[in-house]
Write a structure and sequence with these properties.
18% strand
Length: 449
């Protein structure tokens, strides 16, 4: 089994005196069930229910928690041993009654540690009128990120990745490993298959199977047959949208803005394709503008590469900024940033300024304390960062980041127009999972200079 960083969170949850039932959230096939089975090794007792099975689902028709627990042990032919029990309810979306009842486990039987998960859980939660808000905790699981990839494939490189600042001697190895990761992707099934076979060519079949499964799920997100047809069109054409999208006539269709918006919001809820909206904020809070055209963020960049048939271009590549007009590296850093936020749902933001004198767009912005930090993801000289300079000239600080294929370095510059001095941190793009750490390092070290 691939080691997941979220296991550390679960082990702390296991020992917490304030432990509540835990709802594991995330898209299908990101490894939720596997993660819980990893945790089960740390318990003397483990009960797993799958509510797609009628016999398991019927347990939640019983009168009280005690009967449900006893029935689950009996159904699984388990004689409880001394100590706590991990009680896993999979596919909980099949039973609104089970969703309502999980809060009572901790209140009535604190020795029963409850985790629930489901492949279409986000849709089910909307239909539960008495959802126990405040009485359960959440853990968001994502595809495997670069940290977890190195842990599986190159643990020594992981130690170098965690050094701040990253040493120059590790740059070549980390860059190459990150390019491999961009090709293989972060879907657990795909990475497990690769680790077993060491065959990158064969990964295409696994990805096709996964993508077909996501498309087949589209009908489960739909409210009616028309909505189902539009969702299928959107999921088929979305990978080929190069930049910010328009809902109207999406994918060369005749569908109206409202219809496409409904379909994309359903896919966003499923976490298969997410809507990333821009902001015009220069100081906190960072507020998304839902009236502006969004970008699309797919569940996994490796899957996107397979759909777009970019595998051959990735083999031996020196700079991901040159691939697919820079869209792939921008997408991958967004995915990395999403992956490290597991206790709440995180959505990346990018910055835009649109007026009669011209438009500006910064690839990514990230809030740190009282600052919103602009981040450009591209190669080239510092002087080509036109939009970043516009941001710096209008904000209340002097920190900017450029993520690229080069080595780590921090430089002092000034904007071309207003001559405002600022610090530019040039960050190798394989440090996407380390971005918050580096922003803290950057701001604290150069705040007084």
């Amino acid at each position: 089994m691939l080691q997941r960083n979220s296991l550390d969170f679960l082990l702390k949850w296991q020992k917490s005196k304030k432990r509540k039932p835990l709802l594991l959230r995330g898209a299908r096939q990101v490894g939720k069930t596997t993660l819980v089975r990893m945790l089960a090794k740390y318990y003397p007792n483990y009960v797993e229910l799958n509510l797609e099975k009628a016999s398991d689902k019927s347990l939640f028709d019983l009168e009280n928690i005690e009967q449900i627990i006893n029935g689950a042990f009996l159904l699984n032919k388990i004689s409880p041993k001394k100590g706590p029990t991990l009680f896993f309810i999979d596919e909980i979306q099949e039973s609104p009654e089970a969703i309502k009842q999980i809060r009572y486990f901790y209140e009535e039987r604190p020795d029963i540690h409850v985790i629930a998960a489901g492949s279409l859980l986000e849709f089910a939660l909307k239909k539960v009128p008495s959802f126990p808000v405040g009485r359960i905790d959440y853990l968001y699981l994502h595809p495997i990120n670069f940290d977890e990839y190195l842990q599986a494939c190159h643990p020594q490189a992981l130690k170098v990745l965690h050094q701040v600042p990253v040493p120059d001697y590790g740059h070549g190895t980390l860059l190459q490993k990150f390019h491999d990761y961009a090709l293989i992707g972060g879907m657990p099934e795909v990475l497990s298959d690769y680790l077993e076979s060491n065959d990158m060519v064969g990964l295409n079949k696994v990805y096709k199977k996964l993508w077909t499964a996501y498309k087949d799920d589209a009908e489960k997100y739909a409210k009616n047959n028309t909505n189902k047809t539009i969702i299928k069109h959107v999921i088929d054409t979305a990978p080929y949208q190069l930049d910010r999208i328009k809902f109207e006539n999406f994918g060369n269709s005749n569908y109206r803005s409202r219809e496409v918006g409904e379909a994309l919001r359903a896919l966003d809820l499923s976490k298969v394709i997410r809507l990333i909206y821009p902001t015009s904020s220069l100081i906190p809070p960072l507020i998304s503008n839902f009236k502006k055209r969004p970008r699309l963020q797919f569940l996994d960049t490796g899957m996107l590469n397979q759909i777009l048939l970019l595998q051959s271009e990735l083999i031996g590549i020196k700079d991901l900024s040159n691939l697919h007009t820079g869209r792939i590296i921008e997408h991958l850093i967004g995915q990395e940033l999403i992956s490290i936020h597991t206790e709440f749902e995180f959505t990346p933001s990018f910055w835009t300024r649109e007026n009669s004198n011209g438009n500006a767009e910064v690839d990514l912005v990230y809030q740190y304390q009282k600052h919103i930090i602009p981040i450009e993801i591209k190669s080239g000289k510092q002087g080509t960062l036109r939009s970043l300079h516009q941001f710096i000239e209008r904000t209340n600080h002097s920190f900017a980041i450029r993520m690229y294929a080069g080595v780590f370095k921090i430089e002092k510059h000034q904007t071309p127009k207003e001559k405002k001095p600022y610090w530019l941190m040039n960050l190798p793009y394989y440090l996407g999972t380390q971005l918050p750490t580096y922003i803290a390092y950057f701001v604290e070290k150069y705040n007084m200079k």
